[in-house]
Amino acid sequence: MPSTPPSIHTPDQVISLFNQQFLASHNTQLVCCEKEPIYRPADACHPHHRIIFAHGFFASALHEIAHWCVAGKERRLLEDFGYWYQPDGRTAEQQAEFEKVEVKPQALEWIFSQSALFPFHFSADNLTSGLGASQAFQQAVLAQVQAYLTNGLPTRAQCWSDCLIKHFRPNKPLQADEFILEQQSEVFT
Question: Count H helices, E strands: the chain?
Answer without folding.
Answer: 5, 3
